[in-house]
Amino acid sequence: ATPLALMMGTGTGAKRGILIKDADALERARRIDTIVLDKTGTVTEGRMALTSVVPAEGETADEVLRIAAALEAGSEHPIARAIVTAARPEAGVPHNPASSGAQTEVIGDSLTRVTDFRNLEGLGAQGVVDGRAVVIGRPRLLDDWAVPLDPQLRGEFDAASARGETVVAIAWDGKARGILSVADRVKDTSAEAVRALTGLGLEPVLVTGDAEEPARAVAAEVGIDRVIAGVLPADKVDVVKRLRAEGRSVAMVGDGVNDAAALAQADLGMAMGTGTDVAIEASDLTLVRGDLRVAADAVRLSRKTLGVIR
Ligand code: ADP
Ligand code: MG
Protein backbone atom coordinates (compact mmCIF):
# COMPACT_ATOMS: atom_id res chain seq x y z
CA ALA A 1 0.00 0.00 0.00
CA THR A 2 1.06 3.55 -0.52
CA PRO A 3 1.90 5.81 2.44
CA LEU A 4 -1.18 7.85 1.50
CA ALA A 5 -3.46 4.82 1.82
CA LEU A 6 -1.93 4.06 5.22
CA MET A 7 -2.47 7.61 6.41
CA MET A 8 -6.07 7.47 5.27
CA GLY A 9 -6.38 4.24 7.21
CA THR A 10 -5.10 5.76 10.44
CA GLY A 11 -7.26 8.87 9.98
CA THR A 12 -10.43 6.82 9.42
CA GLY A 13 -9.43 4.71 12.41
CA ALA A 14 -9.25 7.73 14.68
CA LYS A 15 -12.76 8.75 13.63
CA ARG A 16 -14.07 5.33 14.63
CA GLY A 17 -12.32 5.39 17.96
CA ILE A 18 -9.25 3.37 17.04
CA LEU A 19 -5.89 4.87 17.91
CA ILE A 20 -3.15 3.30 15.80
CA LYS A 21 0.46 3.58 16.99
CA ASP A 22 2.15 3.01 13.65
CA ALA A 23 1.25 2.06 10.11
CA ASP A 24 2.84 -1.39 10.57
CA ALA A 25 0.03 -2.21 12.98
CA LEU A 26 -2.54 -2.01 10.16
CA GLU A 27 -0.38 -4.30 8.05
CA ARG A 28 -0.29 -6.84 10.89
CA ALA A 29 -4.02 -6.46 11.61
CA ARG A 30 -4.74 -7.59 8.07
CA ARG A 31 -3.06 -10.97 8.63
CA ILE A 32 -4.67 -11.91 11.97
CA ASP A 33 -6.46 -15.28 12.07
CA THR A 34 -6.85 -15.77 15.83
CA ILE A 35 -8.03 -13.29 18.46
CA VAL A 36 -7.36 -13.85 22.16
CA LEU A 37 -9.83 -12.02 24.38
CA ASP A 38 -9.25 -11.28 28.06
CA LYS A 39 -12.44 -11.88 30.05
CA THR A 40 -12.64 -9.36 32.90
CA GLY A 41 -12.86 -5.77 31.68
CA THR A 42 -12.64 -6.76 28.02
CA VAL A 43 -15.58 -9.09 27.32
CA THR A 44 -17.25 -8.15 30.63
CA GLU A 45 -17.75 -4.72 32.19
CA GLY A 46 -15.10 -5.44 34.81
CA ARG A 47 -17.37 -3.82 37.37
CA MET A 48 -18.22 -6.55 39.78
CA ALA A 49 -20.86 -6.51 42.49
CA LEU A 50 -20.87 -8.63 45.63
CA THR A 51 -23.60 -11.28 45.46
CA SER A 52 -23.05 -13.29 48.65
CA VAL A 53 -20.92 -13.80 51.73
CA VAL A 54 -20.92 -17.23 53.36
CA PRO A 55 -19.18 -17.38 56.76
CA ALA A 56 -17.49 -20.48 58.10
CA GLU A 57 -19.04 -22.00 61.22
CA GLY A 58 -18.39 -19.71 64.19
CA GLU A 59 -18.06 -16.55 62.05
CA THR A 60 -20.63 -14.00 60.95
CA ALA A 61 -21.08 -12.66 57.42
CA ASP A 62 -20.65 -9.09 58.75
CA GLU A 63 -17.29 -9.87 60.30
CA VAL A 64 -16.06 -11.71 57.19
CA LEU A 65 -17.08 -8.76 55.01
CA ARG A 66 -15.57 -6.21 57.40
CA ILE A 67 -12.15 -7.91 57.45
CA ALA A 68 -12.22 -8.61 53.70
CA ALA A 69 -13.08 -4.99 52.90
CA ALA A 70 -10.42 -3.60 55.21
CA LEU A 71 -7.76 -5.64 53.42
CA GLU A 72 -9.14 -5.11 49.89
CA ALA A 73 -9.16 -1.32 50.37
CA GLY A 74 -5.50 -1.58 49.37
CA SER A 75 -6.23 -3.29 46.04
CA GLU A 76 -7.49 -1.88 42.75
CA HIS A 77 -8.74 -5.23 41.48
CA PRO A 78 -12.42 -5.28 40.38
CA ILE A 79 -13.12 -8.02 42.97
CA ALA A 80 -11.57 -5.83 45.68
CA ARG A 81 -13.66 -2.83 44.64
CA ALA A 82 -16.85 -4.90 44.78
CA ILE A 83 -16.06 -6.04 48.32
CA VAL A 84 -15.16 -2.56 49.56
CA THR A 85 -18.23 -1.00 47.96
CA ALA A 86 -20.50 -3.60 49.56
CA ALA A 87 -19.01 -2.92 53.00
CA ARG A 88 -19.18 0.87 52.61
CA PRO A 89 -21.90 1.62 50.08
CA GLU A 90 -21.63 5.33 50.80
CA ALA A 91 -17.91 5.41 49.98
CA GLY A 92 -18.24 3.90 46.49
CA VAL A 93 -14.55 3.60 45.78
CA PRO A 94 -11.65 2.51 47.94
CA HIS A 95 -9.13 5.16 48.80
CA ASN A 96 -6.33 3.32 50.53
CA PRO A 97 -3.14 3.52 48.50
CA ALA A 98 -1.76 0.01 48.07
CA SER A 99 1.81 1.12 48.49
CA SER A 100 1.83 2.57 51.99
CA GLY A 101 2.62 0.63 55.14
CA ALA A 102 0.49 1.23 58.21
CA GLN A 103 -3.03 2.40 57.43
CA THR A 104 -6.07 3.21 59.44
CA GLU A 105 -9.36 2.58 57.78
CA VAL A 106 -12.79 3.48 59.11
CA ILE A 107 -15.41 0.91 58.21
CA GLY A 108 -18.84 1.33 59.74
CA ASP A 109 -18.38 2.34 63.36
CA SER A 110 -15.19 0.45 63.97
CA LEU A 111 -11.65 1.57 63.46
CA THR A 112 -9.77 -1.07 61.52
CA ARG A 113 -6.02 -1.07 61.22
CA VAL A 114 -4.31 -2.63 58.21
CA THR A 115 -0.56 -3.15 57.96
CA ASP A 116 1.81 -5.12 55.73
CA PHE A 117 -0.60 -5.08 52.78
CA ARG A 118 0.63 -7.04 49.76
CA ASN A 119 -1.11 -7.39 46.44
CA LEU A 120 -0.57 -10.90 45.06
CA GLU A 121 -1.03 -10.30 41.34
CA GLY A 122 -3.50 -12.75 39.80
CA LEU A 123 -3.99 -14.54 43.13
CA GLY A 124 -5.38 -12.16 45.74
CA ALA A 125 -4.03 -10.09 48.61
CA GLN A 126 -2.58 -10.50 52.07
CA GLY A 127 -2.04 -8.26 55.08
CA VAL A 128 -2.46 -7.82 58.80
CA VAL A 129 -5.91 -6.56 59.84
CA ASP A 130 -6.32 -5.69 63.52
CA GLY A 131 -3.42 -8.00 64.30
CA ARG A 132 -4.78 -10.95 62.28
CA ALA A 133 -2.75 -12.37 59.38
CA VAL A 134 -5.32 -12.35 56.57
CA VAL A 135 -5.22 -13.77 53.06
CA ILE A 136 -7.96 -13.46 50.43
CA GLY A 137 -8.13 -14.79 46.91
CA ARG A 138 -8.46 -17.95 44.88
CA PRO A 139 -8.50 -21.25 46.81
CA ARG A 140 -5.14 -22.14 45.36
CA LEU A 141 -3.74 -19.26 47.40
CA LEU A 142 -5.19 -20.79 50.56
CA ASP A 143 -3.64 -24.12 49.53
CA ASP A 144 -0.28 -22.35 49.34
CA TRP A 145 -0.83 -21.23 52.93
CA ALA A 146 -1.86 -24.79 53.85
CA VAL A 147 -5.34 -23.59 54.85
CA PRO A 148 -7.95 -25.99 53.41
CA LEU A 149 -11.59 -25.05 52.79
CA ASP A 150 -13.80 -27.24 54.97
CA PRO A 151 -16.40 -29.39 53.12
CA GLN A 152 -19.26 -26.95 53.85
CA LEU A 153 -17.36 -23.94 52.37
CA ARG A 154 -16.08 -26.09 49.52
CA GLY A 155 -19.67 -27.02 48.67
CA GLU A 156 -20.82 -23.38 48.78
CA PHE A 157 -17.79 -22.42 46.71
CA ASP A 158 -18.58 -24.97 44.00
CA ALA A 159 -22.28 -24.02 43.94
CA ALA A 160 -21.53 -20.31 43.40
CA SER A 161 -18.92 -21.16 40.73
CA ALA A 162 -21.46 -23.35 38.95
CA ARG A 163 -23.80 -20.32 38.81
CA GLY A 164 -21.04 -18.51 36.89
CA GLU A 165 -20.01 -16.28 39.79
CA THR A 166 -16.41 -15.55 40.69
CA VAL A 167 -15.70 -16.80 44.19
CA VAL A 168 -12.84 -15.93 46.53
CA ALA A 169 -12.01 -17.37 49.92
CA ILE A 170 -10.71 -15.57 53.00
CA ALA A 171 -8.62 -16.99 55.83
CA TRP A 172 -7.03 -15.56 58.91
CA ASP A 173 -4.88 -16.96 61.65
CA GLY A 174 -4.60 -20.32 59.91
CA LYS A 175 -8.30 -21.00 59.33
CA ALA A 176 -10.65 -20.46 56.35
CA ARG A 177 -13.30 -17.95 57.56
CA GLY A 178 -15.63 -17.62 54.61
CA ILE A 179 -16.19 -17.19 50.92
CA LEU A 180 -17.35 -14.14 48.99
CA SER A 181 -18.95 -14.25 45.52
CA VAL A 182 -18.98 -11.47 42.98
CA ALA A 183 -20.66 -11.27 39.61
CA ASP A 184 -19.79 -9.21 36.59
CA ARG A 185 -21.90 -8.42 33.52
CA VAL A 186 -21.05 -9.23 29.95
CA LYS A 187 -20.92 -5.98 27.97
CA ASP A 188 -23.99 -5.41 25.78
CA THR A 189 -21.73 -5.22 22.73
CA SER A 190 -19.64 -8.36 23.30
CA ALA A 191 -21.84 -11.00 21.63
CA GLU A 192 -22.23 -8.85 18.52
CA ALA A 193 -18.47 -8.24 18.51
CA VAL A 194 -17.72 -11.98 18.64
CA ARG A 195 -20.15 -12.58 15.74
CA ALA A 196 -18.38 -9.87 13.72
CA LEU A 197 -14.95 -11.33 14.50
CA THR A 198 -15.93 -14.88 13.55
CA GLY A 199 -17.64 -13.45 10.46
CA LEU A 200 -14.24 -12.07 9.46
CA GLY A 201 -12.83 -15.60 9.73
CA LEU A 202 -11.06 -15.12 13.06
CA GLU A 203 -11.08 -17.74 15.80
CA PRO A 204 -11.82 -16.17 19.21
CA VAL A 205 -10.14 -17.60 22.32
CA LEU A 206 -11.19 -16.50 25.81
CA VAL A 207 -8.31 -16.29 28.30
CA THR A 208 -8.65 -15.48 31.98
CA GLY A 209 -7.14 -15.84 35.42
CA ASP A 210 -10.64 -16.61 36.65
CA ALA A 211 -11.86 -20.18 37.21
CA GLU A 212 -13.19 -22.54 34.54
CA GLU A 213 -16.94 -22.26 35.39
CA PRO A 214 -17.34 -18.46 35.32
CA ALA A 215 -15.14 -18.38 32.20
CA ARG A 216 -17.35 -21.01 30.47
CA ALA A 217 -20.49 -19.11 31.45
CA VAL A 218 -19.22 -15.90 29.83
CA ALA A 219 -17.95 -17.77 26.75
CA ALA A 220 -21.33 -19.43 26.25
CA GLU A 221 -23.11 -16.08 26.57
CA VAL A 222 -21.05 -14.43 23.83
CA GLY A 223 -20.49 -17.45 21.55
CA ILE A 224 -16.86 -18.42 22.14
CA ASP A 225 -15.96 -22.15 22.03
CA ARG A 226 -12.33 -22.10 23.07
CA VAL A 227 -11.61 -21.13 26.71
CA ILE A 228 -8.31 -21.08 28.58
CA ALA A 229 -9.05 -20.42 32.28
CA GLY A 230 -7.05 -20.28 35.51
CA VAL A 231 -4.14 -18.60 33.73
CA LEU A 232 -1.72 -16.74 36.01
CA PRO A 233 -0.77 -13.22 34.81
CA ALA A 234 2.76 -14.35 33.94
CA ASP A 235 1.36 -17.21 31.84
CA LYS A 236 -1.01 -15.19 29.62
CA VAL A 237 1.98 -14.38 27.44
CA ASP A 238 2.64 -18.14 27.03
CA VAL A 239 -0.89 -18.64 25.71
CA VAL A 240 -0.09 -16.14 22.94
CA LYS A 241 3.33 -17.71 22.32
CA ARG A 242 1.81 -21.20 22.04
CA LEU A 243 -0.82 -20.05 19.52
CA ARG A 244 1.87 -18.30 17.47
CA ALA A 245 3.99 -21.46 17.59
CA GLU A 246 1.04 -23.24 15.92
CA GLY A 247 1.64 -20.91 12.99
CA ARG A 248 -1.25 -18.61 13.78
CA SER A 249 -1.21 -14.86 13.47
CA VAL A 250 -2.52 -13.73 16.83
CA ALA A 251 -4.24 -10.58 18.06
CA MET A 252 -4.72 -10.06 21.79
CA VAL A 253 -7.32 -7.74 23.34
CA GLY A 254 -6.94 -6.80 27.00
CA ASP A 255 -7.27 -4.07 29.58
CA GLY A 256 -5.29 -5.05 32.65
CA VAL A 257 -1.77 -4.84 34.01
CA ASN A 258 -1.87 -8.64 33.84
CA ASP A 259 -2.47 -8.49 30.05
CA ALA A 260 0.48 -6.22 29.17
CA ALA A 261 3.09 -8.90 28.38
CA ALA A 262 0.61 -10.86 26.23
CA LEU A 263 -0.43 -7.65 24.40
CA ALA A 264 3.23 -6.94 23.61
CA GLN A 265 3.87 -10.54 22.52
CA ALA A 266 0.90 -10.73 20.13
CA ASP A 267 1.24 -9.96 16.43
CA LEU A 268 -1.31 -7.26 17.16
CA GLY A 269 -2.01 -5.95 20.67
CA MET A 270 -5.29 -4.09 21.18
CA ALA A 271 -5.95 -2.30 24.48
CA MET A 272 -9.27 -1.18 25.85
CA GLY A 273 -9.13 2.62 26.18
CA THR A 274 -11.03 2.15 29.44
CA GLY A 275 -8.22 -0.04 30.77
CA THR A 276 -4.89 0.56 32.46
CA ASP A 277 -2.09 2.72 31.02
CA VAL A 278 0.26 -0.26 31.15
CA ALA A 279 -1.99 -2.21 28.77
CA ILE A 280 -2.34 0.78 26.43
CA GLU A 281 1.43 1.31 26.31
CA ALA A 282 2.05 -2.36 25.49
CA SER A 283 -0.43 -2.32 22.57
CA ASP A 284 -0.37 -1.40 18.89
CA LEU A 285 -3.96 -0.19 18.84
CA THR A 286 -6.25 1.36 21.43
CA LEU A 287 -10.02 0.86 21.25
CA VAL A 288 -10.84 4.24 22.74
CA ARG A 289 -14.36 3.55 24.05
CA GLY A 290 -13.63 0.02 25.24
CA ASP A 291 -16.15 -1.36 22.73
CA LEU A 292 -15.05 -4.79 21.48
CA ARG A 293 -16.98 -4.34 18.20
CA VAL A 294 -14.34 -1.81 17.25
CA ALA A 295 -11.72 -4.62 17.25
CA ALA A 296 -13.62 -6.08 14.27
CA ASP A 297 -13.76 -2.60 12.70
CA ALA A 298 -9.97 -2.39 13.00
CA VAL A 299 -9.47 -5.68 11.14
CA ARG A 300 -12.02 -4.67 8.49
CA LEU A 301 -10.32 -1.27 8.11
CA SER A 302 -6.89 -2.87 7.67
CA ARG A 303 -8.21 -5.18 4.95
CA LYS A 304 -9.92 -2.30 3.18
CA THR A 305 -6.93 0.00 3.44
CA LEU A 306 -4.32 -2.52 2.45
CA GLY A 307 -6.35 -4.85 0.23
CA VAL A 308 -6.95 -8.54 0.73
CA ILE A 309 -4.06 -10.87 1.48
CA ARG A 310 -2.21 -11.74 -1.68
P1 ADP B 1 -8.59 -11.83 34.84
O1 ADP B 1 -7.61 -12.58 33.98
O2 ADP B 1 -9.98 -12.36 34.60
O3 ADP B 1 -8.51 -10.33 34.60
P2 ADP B 1 -6.95 -11.84 37.32
O4 ADP B 1 -5.72 -12.48 36.76
O5 ADP B 1 -6.88 -10.40 37.63
O6 ADP B 1 -8.26 -12.18 36.41
O7 ADP B 1 -7.33 -12.60 38.70
C1 ADP B 1 -7.42 -14.01 38.73
C2 ADP B 1 -8.05 -14.50 40.02
O8 ADP B 1 -7.22 -14.16 41.15
C3 ADP B 1 -9.41 -13.88 40.34
O9 ADP B 1 -10.45 -14.55 39.69
C4 ADP B 1 -9.45 -14.08 41.86
O10 ADP B 1 -9.79 -15.41 42.18
C5 ADP B 1 -8.01 -13.85 42.28
N1 ADP B 1 -7.73 -12.45 42.69
C6 ADP B 1 -6.90 -11.57 42.06
N2 ADP B 1 -6.83 -10.41 42.75
C7 ADP B 1 -7.66 -10.52 43.81
C8 ADP B 1 -8.04 -9.66 44.90
N3 ADP B 1 -7.57 -8.43 45.06
N4 ADP B 1 -8.91 -10.15 45.83
C9 ADP B 1 -9.41 -11.40 45.71
N5 ADP B 1 -9.10 -12.25 44.71
C10 ADP B 1 -8.23 -11.84 43.78
MG1 MG C 1 -8.88 -7.85 32.51
UniProtKB/TrEMBL annotation:
It is found in: Cell membrane. It comes from the Bacteria. Belongs to the cation transport ATPase (P-type) (TC 3.A.3) family. Type IB subfamily. This is Carbonate dehydratase.
